[in-house]
Amino acid sequence: MPDLESSFAQRLAAAAKDLGAPDVGPVAVAPSALEEVGDFSSPIAFRLAGQLRRAPSGIAEDLAAALRLDPPPHTAAVTVSGGGYVNLRIDFAAYAGEVVREALERGLVISPDPDAGAKVVVEHTATNPNKAAHVGHLRNACIGDTVARLLRARGHPVEVQNYIDDTGVQVADVLVGIRELGLAPQEGEAFDRFCSRAYVEVFRRYEVEPHLLELRRETLRQIESRKGAVADEAKQLTSRIVDAHLRTMARAGVAYDLLTWESDIIELGFLSHALDLLMERGVTHKAAQGPLAGCWVLPVEEGAQDPETGEAKVLIKSDGIATYTAKDIAYHLWKFGLLGLDFRYRPWSASGPATSTADPLRAELPPERFGHAARVVNVIDQRQSAPQKVVKEALRRLGFTTQAEALYHLAYEVVALSPRAAVALGVETEPGRTMYALSGRRGIEVGADDLLDEAERLVRPKARDQRTAELLAASAVRYYLLRFGLNSIINFDFEEALRTSGDTGVYLQYAHARACGILRRVEPLPAPSQVVDLAPEGRRLVKQIAAFPGAVEEAARSLSPSALAGYTFQLATAFNDYYEHTDRLFRVEDPARRGQGRALVDALRATLGRSLELLGMQPLERI
To answer: The domain at 4-90 falls in which architecture?
Structure first.
């Protein structure tokens, strides 16, 4: 099916060149603000007026005349309005039927990318395995999961990875609480929630008993040694937490292909191998004096002579402990197949993802399935922008310029608390302050499971059964976290997050269920080859359905889930307008009109359902 908006823009660009415009540039085309002038409009004549030294109205008339001689497909008329706008009116008689047929025949690949073929690795979530997941972690996972779905919808092979930082200091903190302070779960308390509570208590104790910090340092050393009782306990603790995280994320429709463990990176020699490579190629060196004396550092500026003064990124601290960035460089060399070493792989569970392992006796899966990315997308909040730049720069300085360019940090803003949410969580608020930061150390956070539980409680009276309530709640929470742009801080508010009307996931699900209900009530009939008597609401719905491939392409190209969320809301709204302002199909006596209307509703159902799937929301046929 031709993309009429793009075809219109291309014809205008060609006509502008024929008029002698020296710099046509991108041609803006958008749905017409006034339906009476056409379906699409372009202000290109206003932009060309300076170049051609002519009035916009005359330029627009010449462009319209050219397009009438060589019109885009399905053109009914080309007109001029508003002193220089060029307008395109669509001939819906054949176009609507073509839109409907394509919507009903569409496969899994929505808008094929001509550059698809090489693997994309999308890494997201990467929640520290020392406590329960909170709403900020859930936002990360929903963004990453939707990006992976969008890339697959364009034909890209995608591998979704979740990096498990099981040797980090946060794990050591919880082990200090369990081993040294005797903290234990209460009766009936979920293990991940107990660990969240232990984490808060340990930090409180650090503040009043600073000598406990030495226990933390010693615990971290033993974890990183990968040997002994402490390392074994850390692995057991983090495995239990990861199980809890996987269950939480599955409630929101999030899944993974591979879990990669930091402990395996260390145990299999990834880190030492990467450091050797960095040293051999002169990318890093050991500072001999100054504040970073004894540290292996990577200068911030290539060729800079200032690591002695602290203007460098530390990879190995003076006590021999590797920083997160050093491990991340090793990890990304592996992602791109540049390290010369590999993990071993096994299933995490019978129905779950694969996982890396250092144990050769547990290797069950073929290694060629994993890694070897041509492109990497890391979904990490914007506070980690500096370390991500260091990883990219390390690849470049090692000579892997193609891979450095193919490494993309998909940064997003964090979730904060509105004053109302802060009060609900017992946080002391201040007059005039509009947001409050989450803090796992202080216990100031909204648990992901708690939010999903509350959403289920609210929608349960509206749902036909418990499973429907679970899916409806997941839709509400997931859409709330996706509809904000990546550059927007979500000022979390319980009432707003759990709202079920307006621009919400529940609204979208009701639209889909309404379409399915119509199809159950109206028997299938042959749709006429030429559309007859299509109301304005029907024409708007056809245009929204036709815009789906373009919306997917744009959302995937820009890695912007919010763009698809916005399109999906517009699609559902167009359908509800159509439903409210046209005759009920089961009352329509003319078979041609009834068949035409049913086919249009079916096309909407297929398109809305696929769009919901790309947003990670399971479409509901009944609510």
So the answer is: 2-Layer Sandwich (3.30)
